[in-house]
Structures are given as structure tokens and as C-alpha cells.
Amino acid sequence: MDAVDAAAAAAAVDAVAELVDALPDGVVATAPDALEKYRFDWTHDARAGTPLAAVRAETAGHVQEVLRWASRHGIPVVPRGAGSGLSGGALAVDGAIVLSTERMRAVEIDTAARVAVVEPGALNVDVKRAASEYGLWYPPDPSSYEICSIGGNIATNAGGLCCVKYGVTTDYVLGLDVVLADGTLVTLGGSYVKDVAGLSLLKLFVGSEGTLGVVTRATLRLVPAPPPPATVVATFPSVAAAAAAVIELGRTLRASMVELMDQASVNSVEDFRPMGLDRDAGALLLIQCDAPGAARAEEVAVAVAACEVSGAKEVFATEDPEEGEMFVQARRLHFTALEARGAVLPEDVGVPVPRLPELLAAVEGIAQRHGVQIPMVAHAGDGNTHPAIIYTPGDDESERRARLAFDEVMAAAIALGGTITGEHGVGRLKAGSLEAQLGPDVMELNRRVKAALDPHGILNPGSFV
Amino acid sequence: MDAVDAAAAAAAVDAVAELVDALPDGVVATAPDALEKYRFDWTHDARAGTPLAAVRAETAGHVQEVLRWASRHGIPVVPRGAGSGLSGGALAVDGAIVLSTERMRAVEIDTAARVAVVEPGALNVDVKRAASEYGLWYPPDPSSYEICSIGGNIATNAGGLCCVKYGVTTDYVLGLDVVLADGTLVTLGGSYVKDVAGLSLLKLFVGSEGTLGVVTRATLRLVPAPPPPATVVATFPSVAAAAAAVIELGRTLRASMVELMDQASVNSVEDFRPMGLDRDAGALLLIQCDAPGAARAEEVAVAVAACEVSGAKEVFATEDPEEGEMFVQARRLHFTALEARGAVLPEDVGVPVPRLPELLAAVEGIAQRHGVQIPMVAHAGDGNTHPAIIYTPGDDESERRARLAFDEVMAAAIALGGTITGEHGVGRLKAGSLEAQLGPDVMELNRRVKAALDPHGILNPGSFV
């Protein structure tokens, strides 16, 4: 360590001591073993840095305190929700502070205004449960909904399985309290539904991945709970046939779920927890319809017909919500089942629905070319796919090939007029591919907006902007 | 005119000559009589300036040409759609250019991707008609949908009557081509549904009222057309009772329309075109339900019960879509009927739905206090109201009282935790009240983002930011 580094390190130690003093006991963690869990998100990326400290804020005031302090000392801040992110957006950075909202978990339901007022550390499932006590529903449902936080959902504009009918996180955010880089707390929107007063800053903060501010409170729109869904499960000889069915049903049907699993995904779930899925099918479609009353049966008939006309091997329909939920759980196990087999680079590419067959073919080609396994699920009705690139941890050659495949899958989506990320976010894992999608002019707009809101670049450095 | 002014005027004349030369014949209008119609929007505000020229762009290239030219000469640009705006966002400015997109009207439907690719001058109704040929639907439906343009809808994030169930313009914008202040054309989003690659710039441009860029193409999400609605018309002794019914039905029902007309609005529509509405009712609610099949009757029953329990005088329900549409047309006539009576300052304030009775009471009080008539309709299910402040054109005292009332209605909405504009935009009419709602910190964020995207302030100066 030279003299300059030594001086910087001493200054950082002093700065952290100042922060510890400014906040209540137990809010700031500095011990190396306590910090370990704040280094990683679900990408488990070995390139994660080591933070100076982790702050478990308990109030918006703590968040303001941290950001004022960080601005004063020029110390970067990595905001963190539940750490379930799949794009490396919350990976720690050397010399930074991790600012966790895990302790801010209040959820209040206002039935008359039909909103939930939520702190960012509340889990998605906490909001769903609280709303359901009043017959209300918070729709966005990432597969990780039982462990992911609302703050993270907002930061990534999270999607899920019901988006195909009910939309994504941004469609449900009516209001936000946000602490800016300099510690200023601003309130955007509120409990009202329609609002065009000024620029759409509310929507700008949604999906900004901690690069523009830290959300300390959200007002979320709730809707009356829909009727229980009927479920259609169809197997196909190939993913191409399944994709054709998706396009076909999309012409007329507003299904509440249109999920695709390829053969490798079905088999890895069956290996992990046998559920009697057809291991020989080239692909499986899982469709739900939730129109009220007798109309649901009509929707099911449309879904069944679309599968049959597209060459389905078998089509099974059930009106039993519990039986349907069993299939949905199988689908949700995809990522967990894969993780049990090795390390996973989770993809999240999307294309216009009509280009889905081409994307699926491209992914198959990439898997073969690089000799890697890429089991896949897709929110097929939205054209949003999750190829999961498997590699052997510690095997450099395996990891190298996986990363090549990861980049090529993104390139394939871009070539098909699509996106490198439909719902996970860019984070650190995809930051290098963003400009290939957006082009230099849109990248420059991203940088200008970032600079306007976080002029000293304190927030989530090394992330996408 | 002093020497400096004379030199500036001569320079402007030269600049306009340069623009006329750069664009095809007939694209640039400079004759005073031709310019007259580009001075005003539907606010007919006498404070409108006189532009140097009006450019009727025919291609995105023309728009780029204009903005490059404007940046070079430091000449401001007022973007303009169909001129049906109600907030003065397209009022001309002395010494500026009006940039109209009225000639860019192409509409293409892609049924497989379920999108419309639309030029900004296309009318809302053009998109609806083109989509309906394929059994598809573009939901946003401002009352002016037959005469307002998609570009204006995007600029204001326009709402309408079906928003209460189907959302507003921003919920349907998947992609935009935007020409920035310096003439750069950027493409944001595309034909894919889910996208979180980079900051949500797409959403930032929606509702930016021509202050950040000029939209030259939009990709709009379409949905399968819903079944025909049933209609419930209920009369109430007072607006308070009608508002109570709105809150009651909102607890469990997703109606596809929940409109309120007060007695004065009902009577002015009846004066304009007699339709047999109940002139004695204190308020009228117009509710539509469009659940498929037998479920629609269940929804109607919920709506009827909510009206009855809230003290409705009469409740009428019809399953005949044409009969229902007749009532909707009566509702849509509100503004036209009022304009036949005198000049109107159209309000657009919104509050959380539970505060609706307080807002309606406040508006009544303001009308009485200032001795002005304020007939009102409301997209009541969204808490978004349109008090219409009537004044006598040319009568200074009448206009003064109307403007006082206009400001006080906004103040009342802000005091109730609401917004000064739910769907019309801030424009020039409400620019002075924006900070009262947003506060200085959020105003500063608006200014910073504006400066980041339009550093020389070329776009729509004198508007809200």
C-alpha cells in the first residue's frame, strides 16, 4: 500500500466511524463475517467486491443520513433489497457502502383508495397477503415472489407470470418516496390513479436499479382479486410447435398466464421433485384463464384449440385451482431445480411474440455450438424468455463457454428486434451489452439523465449507467 | 423598433427563408392567415403568441431538419398535434416555430405482435378503427377521441372514460421514435411487451408535453376487443350521494366506465341536445360493465346495489349496447354543450377516490364564493374530475373571477392530496400552479431532467418546465 492508498484507507475508516456514530446501534455492520452476506445477490458472482459497511436502514431518515454522508465523503452506495436479483444489480463494490432496506417492512392497506402503502423491504408476498385479507390483489408475481422485496421489484420493474394479462410493477406504482443522491427526500405521485403533473419522474425511478435514488415508501395500486383460474397443460413435440400455439392463442385470448418450459427444464424439475410431468415432451405450455363465470370455459376452449391446431401431443385442462397451482409450482421450481445441478447464468431476453420461434431456435444453436446446456422457461405470452446457462463452478473452461453463450443469447435477441432484459434488469452482468441494444444515442440519454439526478455518481456505480 | 430588435427580426426572416428552402413546397406556412389556426388549441387562450412559421412535417426527416435548424438559430419550437389540447400546451409563442405533425398519419396493424405502428398525426379514432378491423382494440379513449391525435395523446399521457379498467396512454406505449432538441432521432422500446434495458426513457417521454422531444412514430399495444358492455344509469339527489356510490362499487367491482355528471352538466347537455336525461337529479352516474358472458349481469347487479345503497333516486340498467352508447354520447357532449354557452376554463383535477366527496363540495363552495358556474363531469372511478368554469368572453370581471376559481379548484385538489391535472397536462394554463403540487425539490428534478435533454431550452418554452 502506498502513501496515497494508506491515507484513503484511513479516511474511509474515519468516515465509517462517523456513520456508525450517526446511526442507532446495530444499524451499521462492519465485521467481515457480517458483511459477507451483503456482497452477493442470487448471481453469486465471484467478482463481487467487499463493502466498507452494510447499513440496515430502519427509517427513511436513516437512508437520508447515509446518502448525505456518502455525498459528503464521496463514498459510493449500493442499494439492496432482498438480494434475490438475477442481474448483479446489488453486487457489492470495493470501498462502497451497501444500503439495505431489509428492515423497512411495514405494509398498510387502504381499502377505500384501494392501495397498499409499503416500505421497500416488505416482501412481494407480504403485500399479496395483506391485500388478500380484504379481497384485494397485488398482481405482479415474479417467480421469487416469496423472497423478493417490493423495493427490488420497483428497482427492476419486476414482472412475473401474470404480466401477460395484468402488467408489470410499473403499472401498479402510484406513488414513491425516494431519497436522492444528496439525501433529499422527494415524494412523487400518491394515492390517486391518474396524474400528469410534470414529467413522469415516478415512472423514471421505476426500473432505475438504484442508480437514481433509494425508494423508502411506495403506494401500490390494488385490484379486486380475480376469480380462480382454470389451467391448461399442453405438451408439444418441439419448442417451435409450442411457440406457434402461443402466437395462435395470442390473437384472440387474454390468458392470465402463458408459460413455456422446454424439455430440459421439465426434466430438471422432475429430477428435483418428481411431479409426473412428461419427460419426453419437446416442450410444455402452461396456460391459465381467469375470466369470470361461464366465460372461463370459453377461454379454455380457445386455449385448447390453439394448442391442438399447433400440433400438441396431449392437452389437459382442469378447473381445480389446486391442481392448476401444482403445475404453476413446478414451473416456479425451474430456477431452484437448476441451481441444485450447478451454477446458472440466468438469461432474461425478450422478443416480439412472433419472433419467439426464431429466438428459441437461436438459443438451441448457441447451446450446441458452445457445448453448454441451456434449459429454458419463458413467459411466452409476453415473448420474455429465461434461457438458463449451466456451468460448472470452478471450471474455467466451462465458465468461459457459458459466458460466451450468455453474450450470444443477448445478441440473438437484439438481432430479432428484442431486448437483453425483460424483467430482471441490466445490473452488472449485462452492463456491457446494453449499448448494443440501445445504440450510442440512447446510451448517452441514459448517462445525461443519470448525471442530472446523481451528478457525483454516488449511486450503484459499476451498474448499467 | 430599435436597432437590436430590427437586427433580430431580419435574422429571423433570413432563418425562416432558409427553412422554407430546406423543406418541400407547402410544408412551411408563413402567411399570417395560414398561421392563425396554429396559434391556438382548444383553450382559445387570447394570450397565444404569433409564430414565425408553421411547419407541417411529412416525415421524421422533416422533424429532424426543423430541430437542427432551430438549434442552430436558437429559435424555439412549439410541437403540435391536432390542437385539441385543453391545457394550452400547444399555444403558439411569439418568435417560435409551430411544428405540426398533422400530415403524418400512417397507421399499420401487426396482428401477430398485436401492435399498431402509428405516426403522431393519426387520430385516436383512426387507430381504433384500424385495430377493430382485426377484432383488436386500442383502449385509451379521451372524450375527444374523434378529433385528437395520437401524438397529442402521448404528449399528455391522455386518459379517458375506460381508464378506470383499462389504463391510460402510457400503459399502451411500447415503442417511440423521438426527435430530440438537437435533431437526433432515437428509437426507444419496440414491438416487445416487457423491457427493462436501461432507464425508463420511454415512459419519461410519455406525458412530457413536447418539452423533451417530438414523437415521430409510436408502437402501441393492442388487446382483443372486450365484449359489448352493459350500462347502468343512476340518478342521485346530490353529487355527494353519487360519490358515495362510486366509493362503494370501487371496493369490489372493476367496472369499465364510472362517469359522473352533475346537475348543471346534465342540464347543459339537455339544452344542447335533448335526450331525456333527468334534469332534476343532483347527479347522474353512468356505469358500464363488460365482463364476458353471464358474469356481466353479476357486475351490473353489484353496480346497481352500490347505487341503491348510496341513495339513488332511480337506477336503470340496459344490456343494449346502442342504448348504452347513447348515454355515453350524452356524457361526451359535456364540453361541446358548454362551449355553446360561453367560454370555458376546463379543469382536470384529481384526488384519491375516497376524497372525491370533499373535492366536489369544495368546488361547489368555490363556485358560490366567486359567483361563477362550474358544471362538472368526472371520471369518477379514477377520482379525476373536470369542473368546467364558465365565463363570458370579453367580460374582464367575469374572466377574473373564473381565473380565481380555476386556481382555487387546483388548490383544493392539492390540499386533498391530489393533482392539478389527471390527463390534460399542465401546459401553459397550469404552469403557475405546478410547484404548489410538486414542491420545490421535485420541480428542481423536472428542471434538471429538462436541462439534460434540451440544454438550450428550444422545446415548448413557456410550458410547464
Automatic annotation (TrEMBL), chains A, B:
Domain FAD-binding PCMH-type: 47-225
Coiled coil: none
Keywords assigned by UniProt, alphabetized: FAD, Flavoprotein, Oxidoreductase
Keyword check for Signal: no
Cofactor: FAD
InterPro entries the record matches: FAD-bd_oxidored_4_C, FAD-bd_PCMH, FAD-bd_PCMH-like_sf, FAD-bd_PCMH_sub2, FAD-linked_Oxase-like_C, FAD-linked_OxidoTrans_Type4, Oxid_FAD_bind_N, Vanillyl_alc_oxidase_C-sub2
Listed name of the protein: FAD-linked oxidase C-terminal domain-containing protein
UniProt organism field: Fodinibacter luteus
